[in-house]
Amino acid sequence: MKTSKLITALLAAAVLASSPAMAATKEASSKAQSRKAEPKSAAKPSAKTKKVASKTSSAKAASAKRTSAKASPAKARSMSRGAMVKTSAKSSSMKRETAARALYRDTKSAKAAPLRIVNEVDRDGNPLLMSNAFIVQEVGSGKVLLERNATSVLPIASITKLMTAMVVLDAKLSLSEPLTITEDDTDKLKFTSSRLIVGTTMTREELIHLALMSSENRAAAALGRNYPGGIEAFIAAMNQKAASLGLVETTFHDSTGLNPHNVSSARDLARMVTAATHYPLIREFSTDDEEIVDVRGRAQTFRNTNGLVKSPDWQIGLSKTGFINEAGRCLVMQAWLADKPMVIVLLDSVGKFTRVADAQRIKRWIEGAVSHQAQLVGRVPAG
Q1: CATH number for 173
Q2: Inside any domain, residue 341
Q3: Catalytic one among 131, 158, 255, 319?
Q4: Does residue 137 belong to any structural domain of this protein?
């Protein structure tokens, strides 16, 4: 009996002892099943996972920073080089423009020292000129001091206007007669512009003035159109005048010089310049520095196309310039050099300032030769 009670008591204690363990096992099994049922994305990262992720993120940021740091100097250098190139190009362009403007001002004013080439004379002691054809001749004796390609027949551009003025003055037409610029006077060959707009009315004398001083093409065209018999009769009169002066290499096809078939030679032009000096109005108008003219109620300033006329170093009795692409830059003058009247003809000069520079070289050469001769005479012992 006692034994039976003892066994029952032991069994009851064992059951009580095993119940918490079974409960714990059941709870653990339930949690495991719950974890299996949850999706992996919902699982919270552990502290270790967070630490690894943090390190990875930091490494990526550092790598990106290093890449940016490497790229930035290259990009900066590239931008710097681009800026330097642009700055350098702009600086060079500004320097060239400044130099060109200074050169234009100096040459236009004709007061500054002219451009000099390294050697101004050749082996024979003659000046090195850049015009393709030229002649320098004494007016009185006709002695030729310099010439090159003097008989070559070349386009003469607005040198034509000297003949235009002579023919108009020879016709003894009224200089005070008002003439109107029309559409017929506009340039339909080269399409050059003019400040004498269609409808402008001026006297014949004013048109001669502008044609000679400022080389106004519409003024010259109107002078020819208003000649008795019209422009055809005027061109015929120009060629007749050329023949009467013995200009055998000279032909005219218009009154302006825009037509490249207006041709002559340096020798012929020397004769034409000499003939033109006998017209006081041509001498006066061709050497005027500037003139203020009323153009349809508005004051306009017209200037001479030859900047040398206002130079105190020059005594110019007659002047005319010319330019079209076919003729190049041309210049004819009657000027006093070494106290003698000289005719200078420069044709087909390349470059805007070449004809003026050539004229300056001729002047220095003649005056230098006279000065040298005077020194030699001074050294001759008295007999």
Answers
A1: 3.40.710.10
A2: yes
A3: 158
A4: yes
Q: What is the mean pLDDT of residues 30-44?
A: 44
Given the residues 161, 241, 320, 363, the one annotated as active site: 161
Assess whether 158 carries a catalytic annotation.
yes
Are the CB atoms for 131 and 347 separated by under 8 Å? yes
367, part of any domain? yes
Structural domain boundaries, residue 204 = 131-378
215 is a catalytic site residue: yes
Percent of the chain residues topping a pLDDT of 90: 61
* Separation between Cα atoms, residue 171 and residue 85, nearest integer Å: 64
Distance CA 376, CA 369 (A): 11
Tell me 259's DSSP state: S
Q: What is the DSSP string of 188-233?
A: SSS----SS-TT-EEEHHHHHHHHHHS--HHHHHHHHHTSTTHHHH
Contact status, residue 320 vs residue 159, Cβ threshold 8 Å: yes
Domain count across the chain: 1
Question: DSSP secondary-structure letter at 141?
Answer: T
The token pair at 97 is 């423009």
β pairing state of 316-324 and 263-264: unpaired
Question: Catalytic one among 131, 214, 215, 264?
Answer: 215
Angle in degrees, CA 363, 335, 280, rounded to 5: 170
Q: Is residue 124 part of a domain?
A: no
What does DSSP assign to residue 255? S
Spatial separation of the C-alpha atoms in residues 150 and 127, rounded to whole Å: 16
How confident is the model over 145-191, as pLDDT tens digits? 999 999 999 999 999 999 999 999 999 999 999 999 999 999 999 99
Angstrom distances, CA of residue 96 to CA of 84, 90, 100, 353, 357: 18, 10, 6, 16, 20
Tell whether the model's pLDDT for residue 42 goes beyond 50: no
